[in-house]
Predict the structure.
Amino acid sequence: MLRPDIQARENRKTLDLLGFALRRAGVDQRAWQIAASFDALAACDDCVCLYAADGVWVVAYTERGQWRETGRFQNTSDASKFFYAQFLPGPSPYDVRNEWETATGQQFSMMD
């Protein structure tokens, strides 16, 4: 198990990679949100959201002010793969990992 500070850093990298992969694929940024907590989400409608809550990562869809949870995950990797699949048929956002690392200068210290 990783130290909490290292895990938090890896979570941020995973979420950054997810956003990078969605933008690179041309997914409309109004259709999705990624946040560290539910309270950090901006108001949106007809969008898929990923956020942390009660020690898990939650994927939810909002439509006309109504929230529908579509998945809960113990780690950002699984949550990101599920979130990505809501928009694209490809296997995961990790397909563009090398491109993300080159563009951002960041690297993962561990991978699933």
User: Anything to note?
Assistant: The beta strands are 32-35, 47-53, 56-63, 66-73.
